[in-house]
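This part of the workshop introduces the protein records we will be handling. To make this concrete, we reproduce a full record directly below:
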Amino acid sequence: MEYSVNDNDSHLRARPMPLGLYNASLFSLTPRLVLQKYLSELSRLSRLALPLVFTQLAQMSMSVADTMMAGRVSSVELAGVALGTVVYWPIMLLVSGTMMSITPSVAQLNGAGRGSEAGEVVRQAFWIALVGGVCLIFAYRNLTPLYEFVGVDAAAIPVTTAYLYAMSFGVVPVLCYFCMRYLCEGMGWTIPALAITISALLLKIPLNYWFIYGGWGVPAMGGEGCGWASVVVFCYQAAAIAMVVRFSRIRHCGLFSRFSWPEFVAIRRLVALGAPIGLSTFAEYSVFSTLTLLIGRLGVDKVAAHQIASNIGGLTFMIPLALGMAASIRVGFNVGASDFEAARRSGAVALGTSFAFALMAALVLVLGNDFIAGLYTTEAGVMTLAAELLILVAIYQPFDDVQGTAIGALRGFKDTRTPFFVAVCAYWFVGFPLSWALGFGYFERFDYGVYGYWVGLILGLVVASVVLVGRFAWLSRRTDRIRQLALR
């Protein structure tokens, strides 16, 4: 497959070679030409990934702002926000992850020259957002019994429930935002999400300060204020991305050209492709959430330190996650253009880049753990424990980053079911039991407390990374199987 790039349009246009010439080219590539192909793919991937990296970092920075600003009030407020966050986002990702089926679906339509059909895909996804959002609102407002059952520190529960109640008002807006963002990304345009997320972060920080500490007619709400600030930001993001889709070059997709009633065949297709994405994302994040709830039994100091370590781990994960998203777009585009060699190359470049970043991130965490922990809290006990946990975060970096990128590359092939089963087995059948045994003191000689929970997570991530990379290496060479998946 040859590529030409129009100077006025960053999107690649595929022109198929004659079959005989294409097959002959496979045997005539010199090492220099191979290197040029990989460097060219790295350049294309970078143009997609860099905006996604900063988008994800800005999105994650909102959670960092919540953690840091609530932590400056007290460890109870920090623990309350942490316990709310670890339940809110895994459940949210169960629905928003399902809608991530938009990205590979639109990318393959774009690669096949059928981008005008993308609007109908998103209109049907809006119905998933509406129904799923109503269910989430009900869930978020009735979670107090869960915290009482788990036995988390009672001092944090009022903060947690107030935070979740506030956040429930932003569920539908943020789900609609994700639908339209995935449309833009599937069309290979990642800049809008970057601009909107950075501006949302700039809005989030002063709103946090206002609602947490009060003033100008608003009472001081502590951790609950983080939730109300998020609601305002979610509504802003939804409105901003809607304006982009309506008035930019994405308008040719026709998202707002007409109204569509639910078409259950189309919805079923989206859910069949996206549900494994949502479930695999939920399986991973829910392990972290469940362990955070269990750590809540150890006291607010342990929760606060664990939340700091998780926050940093989540922040560094945004880069490989963005690389996975970019790989999904590039792989999907190449599959739609029937260039399977290029699809394999796209995934391989993303995986290599993710691994290189993981090594650098691990080095920074080892050398700067004390300084980083000190940015979050002034309480000496929490700071010391968080710094120690950051060493464990450094150890799991290579495994976590590579598996996250591999999942994204596999999504480009519309391979979502196998990663789901891998996630469930690695996180819940390997990582969680080991975390429970080592952290909860199931075996008397191996009672490592909060450290044990993290060791179990690392072992689960090792399994996930090995299997998922192996799955990509196998699938990317199976042309017939790729064609079958593309029909989904």
In short: Residues 1-28 have pLDDT under 50 and may be disordered. The CA atoms of residues 210 and 218 lie 8 Å apart. Residues 31-71 form the longest helix (41 residues).
